[in-house]
Amino acid sequence: MWDPFAISQSKMASDSDILTNDLEEEQEVSVTLPKVPLYKRALNFLFKNYLPIGLIFLVFFGILVPAPGVFLSKYPTHYICIVGLFLHSGIKLRTGEIKDAFRAYKALLLQIIIIMFLTPLIGVKLTELLPFGGRVEKDFSNGQNGTMNSTREKMNDSHVEKTVHSVLGPEAFRTGIQMYFIVPCTISAGVVLVGQAGGNAALALMTTVICNLMAVFTVPLMIKWLMSFEGVKIDIVQLLIKLILTVLVPLLVGKALRFIPHVRYFVKQNTNILKCISVTLLIMIPWMKVSLSSHHGAFKDINIAGAFAILAYGLALHLGFLIINYGCSVLLRLEQAETKAFVILSSQKSLIVAVTVLSLLPFDGAFQGLLTLPIVIIHLEILVVDAFIVTYWHNRTEQNIARNKEVRTNREELSKTKIVNENGIAIHVSTV
C-alpha cells in the first residue's frame, strides 16, 4: 500500500544527508582557508595602535636620546605639525550627517556644557589640591657671597626647576594636568570609539565640531579664569590670535579643500597614509618638548612612583567623569546609542589641542616638556580604559543582536503547525 508518511520520512532522511554533506563541505572550506601571515598581522596591529606605540616610544627616546628632538626644536617645527594636524582634520571632517544630531538636542546641549565648563572646573580645582613639589629658579649668584637672587617673578627668563621632594613630581606637572582638563573632547578618537561601540556617530561628530571650534575662543578665557602662572603674564589676545591662525584657519581650509572632487578622491584613496602622517605630526610635538626637558636635565629628580601616582590620579578622575556622565544620561533618559556618545565624548580630552595650547604659551621648551609628560601619561591611560569600555559595549550589542535573532527564529517556529502521524513522524506545515 502506498504510504505518504514513508515517502515523507525518506525525503526527510535524504534532506538530512544533503544538509550533513553541505556542512562537511563548509567545514572543509573553512579549514583550507589561507592563514594570514604573521608579518601582516603584526603590521595591522602596529597600524591600529600607532598612536600609543609611537607616543610611548618617542617619549622614552626623547628622554634617553634628546639630541634629534633638540635639533628640530630650533626651527618652527611644532607650528608645521600643528597646522598639518588641523589641516588634515578639516579634510577628513564630514559634516553631512551632522543635521541628524539635532534630534538629540538635549544630549548635545548638556554635552557642550559638561565638556567646555564642568569637566575643566572639576579637573583644575581637584588638581590644585594635589601635593606637587614647589619650584626654585636658576641660581644667579654673584660669585662672592653665594647668595641667590630671587627670580620667582622672572619665571619666563629661565623656567629651570629644582623640585622639592614630592611623590607626584614637580609643580609643572600640576600645570600640565590642569591644561589637559581645560581643553575640549578628542577630535577623531572619540568619534571612532563611539562608532565602534554602536553609539550615535552623528551626535559624536556634531559635539566634536562644535566643542573644538568653541575651544579656540573659550580656552584662553578658561586659562585666565581657572589657572594662575607665578611670574608669567599670559596674553589672552595673543593666544587667541595664535589659536585662530594655527587651529581654526587650517581646519576651515581643510574643510574647503574637501569640496574639490580630486582632493576628496585623493583623501579617500590614501586614508591610511594620511592617518599615519597625522599621527606622526601629533607625536612629534611632545617628543620635541620632552627632548628639550631631558637635554636640560629636568627629569633627573622624577621617579617611577610619581608616574604611577599620576596614572592613579588620572584613572580616578576619568572614572569619576564616566560615572557623572552616565548618571546624567540616565536622568535625561537618553537612548542607548545616545548614551554611548554622551558618556565617551564628555569624559575625554584632546591631546592635540592640549599640546597645541602648551606650545603657544610663553614658556621655553624645557619647561614645556615637563608640562607635556603627565598629559601624555594620562591620555594614553584614558585611551586604554575607553577601549575596554567600547569593547564591552560592542560585545553586548552583538549578544543582543544574536539574542533578538534567536527570539525571532523561535517565534517563526511557533507559528508553524505540527502534524504527527501514528509512527511519530512530524510534518511541519507553515500557516503563513
TrEMBL record:
Transmembrane segments: 50-71, 107-126, 177-195, 202-227, 239-260, 272-290, 302-329, 341-363, 369-393
Pfam families hit by this protein: SBF_like
Source species, domain of life: Eukaryota
Keywords: Membrane, Transmembrane, Transmembrane helix
Family affiliation: Belongs to the bile acid:sodium symporter (BASS) (TC 2.A.28) family.
Name used for this protein in its record: Probable sodium/metabolite cotransporter BASS4, chloroplastic isoform X2
Organism: Actinia tenebrosa
